[in-house]
Amino acid sequence: MVCIAAFIILAVIGVFVAILSIFWPKIGKSYWKMFKKSWGCLWKKVRLQKCETGFKEDVKNTLLSRVVIKHPKWMKPLSIIIEILAVVIVIVAVWAILTAVKSLLALWVLGSCNVTKPSACSLGAEVCSIDESEPTNALEATGRWFTEWGEIFAAIPDKFQTYNAEDYDFNYITVNSDAADKPVAVDIFDPGCSACMQSYRNQKAAGFFDNYNVRMVPFAIQDADNTYKFKNSEVVVRYMLAAEQVKAGLALSLIDHIFTDKNQDGISYQNVFNEDYSREEATAKLEAWLKDAGVNDEGVAEIRKIANYDETTTKMQENREIIENQINVRGIPTMIYDGRKHTGLWKAE
After folding, report:
1. I need a surface site. Which of 46, 210, 268, 306 has the fewest CB within 10 A?
2. What is the DSSP letter of 296?
């Protein structure tokens, strides 16, 4: 293990030695000589051959040369400590390599290097993540680490799968009733998600809604403890589904207000719903917008009633089942169009 640990350490410090050798060539020569020995020893280990004991002893003697003169009795215990440290270094290095590979695979197949909490990965697409519960102890953390590998390998076929937006029986909002003859696209969003808001704005500016028959699926993200990620998303989704049931396309006015409008103080209504409004205030604002869209008092009362129906709860659960278990979505916005699944902030090509 000593020679393997030495190779790992020498490989890590190789960059710094290369810089130093520009000014002190002797350092580079000494390093290269030691590195070749460590590589030769490692290569023999890979081929299950016996490593040269000379290299192992050279490493130990180099580390213990000063100690043995002053404290010869310390030689044996320090030698054992070096062996233990070597084992630890090798284990940590192997774990780091496996974690790096896992993160890269997750980034490729899931769009995020963090399987449990996708939004925590700065390399992935900008998303509002559907997070899983965090491990509470070392045993759970170890089990979670292996479970993530399973999720990654299970998701690899998704990269090569053809997605048909019409195959999924979502409860959705109609965007353009005149686009029935155009290719179908599914757009999954959370009213409280900032990435969803920006995607919507980008899509409107680029004419995406004119080129596709878009079915917008409102979805309130729930965390592992079943609380909602954004304060009023659940009530907004209920009103959107209820308004759509009363009149196709009516809920689109609510989406427009939340994603594009600002209040009298110049603050985005999405932020107001997420940070300021109570459930009652959010409900009152939604109903005011419905009246602005031409719905009379009786119609608003009907929408309010439908929003609280068990049927609406069932529709939300049906959407969640499709999103989390059939399509294996880990973050939104997520879109399905042109035979592919696209996760993250939508940008005009």
Report:
1. 46
2. -
Extended beta strands in 231-339, E state: 331-332, 334-337
- Output the DSSP codes for 207-225: THHHHSEEEEEE---B-TT
Q: For residues 139 and 126, give the distance between their C-alpha atoms in angstroms, rounded to a whole number.
A: 31
In whole angstroms, what is the distance from residue 221 CA to residue 179 CA? 29
Label the pairing between strands 213-218 and 173-174: antiparallel
312: which 2 tokens?
């609406």
pLDDT along the chain (349 residues), means of 10: 49 50 56 58 56 52 55 63 64 72 78 71 71 70 76 77 89 84 93 94 92 94 85 95 92 94 93 94 96 93 94 95 88 91 82
Give the tokens for residue 258: 């939340």
Residue 38 sits at φ, ψ, to 5 deg, of -65, -40
pLDDT at residue 75, as a whole number: 60
Residues 205/250, Cβ–Cβ less than 8 Å:
no
Number of Cβ within a 10 Å radius of residue 4: 20
Show contacts of 8-15: CB within 8 Å, 24+ apart: 8/89, 8/90, 8/93, 9/89, 10/34, 10/35, 10/38, 11/35
Element (H, E) at 128: strand 128-129
CB 218 within 8 A of CB 189: yes
Backbone angles phi, psi at 213, to 5 degrees: -90, 90
Q: Which domains does the chain have, with CATH numbers?
A: 2-97 (no CATH), 109-160 (no CATH), 165-343 (3.40.30.10)
Residue type, position 306, single letter? I
pTM: 0.71
At 110, list the tokens: 């899931």
Residues facing residue 334 across a β-bridge:
188, 343
Distance between CA atoms of residues 190 and 209, nearest Å: 18
* Beta strand 184-189 pairing with 213-218: parallel
- At residue 220, the pLDDT reads 95
Strand partners, 337: 340
> How long is the chain?
349
